[in-house]
Inverse folding.
């Protein structure tokens, strides 16, 4: 039985790692070597020139500055989007779980229902609204969109997590004179590390990997890395430069991968603690 389980795990790991293996090898070969030896053969020599070219010199449309500008644009979009969405979701989930205000369940139901409405139907109204106030195509518009569309999920995560806190702890804090914000800062947040890790990893993956919102709301000056990667792959003339494309793709994927590797253990603890349970 155990041999069968390990065999299945090895096969599954190989299935998911094979594309990564091909991408890494392709990014380290020249096009002539790639055509001669194929994608599965080991490179004759490790080449980092392709990575440097993809980072600083590759053409992403009319500009040939690599994807480095898109990387820093994505960082500028990512940090406020993650901080604001996690912070607002934590406060909203806290309010709906431990402070039983009138109509809280109805409000939560409406908020949750909003998560199942296709966000594509909101794109045109949002563009018109942002244009009316003069922020369309700016950092404010792209960050606002990511925060707005993430609130249902963030609220659900924190509400379900905070609902598992014993009411006796909440009542004891109130008897000791703690108010709304004191309970939130000194009681709930210190024990919410795994839950926050779940929310951060989900948001980092969603915001960093986003393409559609970046195309519509970011504008030319805030174009994220995913949009520049698309321009790099789809604006080439003649034979595609697979080595450059693979290097750029791997660099685009490094940030969410690094976040998960660094916070993966907290992510697992958050799942086990009930962060995404109903």
């Amino acid at each position: 039985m155990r041999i069968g389980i390990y065999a299945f795990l090895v096969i599954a790991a190989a299935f998911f790692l094979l594309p990564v293996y091909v991408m890494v090898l392709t990014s380290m070969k020249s096009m002539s070597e790639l055509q001669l030896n194929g994608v599965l053969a080991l490179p004759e020599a490790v080449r980092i020139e392709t990575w440097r070219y993809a980072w600083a010199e590759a053409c992403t449309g009319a500009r040939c500055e690599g994807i480095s500008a898109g990387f820093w644009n994505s960082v500028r979009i990512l940090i406020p989007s993650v901080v604001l969405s996690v912070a607002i979701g934590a406060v909203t989930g806290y309010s709906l779980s431990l402070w039983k205000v009138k109509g809280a369940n109805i409000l939560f139901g409406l908020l949750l229902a909003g998560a199942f409405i296709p966000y594509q139907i909101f794109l045109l109204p949002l563009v018109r609204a942002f244009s009316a106030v003069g922020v369309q195509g700016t950092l404010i518009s792209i960050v606002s969109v990511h925060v707005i569309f993430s609130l249902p999920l963030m609220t659900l995560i924190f509400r379900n997590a905070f609902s598992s806190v014993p009411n006796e702890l909440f009542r004891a804090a109130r008897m000791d004179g703690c108010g709304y914000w004191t309970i939130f800062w000194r009681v709930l947040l210190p024990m919410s590390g795994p839950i926050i890790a779940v929310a951060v990893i989900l948001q980092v993956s969603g915001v960093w990997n986003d393409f559609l919102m970046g195309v519509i709301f970011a504008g030319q000056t805030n174009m994220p890395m995913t949009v520049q990667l698309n321009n790099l792959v789809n604006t080439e003339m003649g034979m595609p430069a697979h080595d450059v494309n693979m290097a750029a793709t791997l660099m685009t994927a490094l940030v969410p991968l690094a976040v998960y590797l660094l916070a993966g253990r907290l992510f697992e603890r958050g799942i086990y603690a009930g962060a995404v349970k109903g």
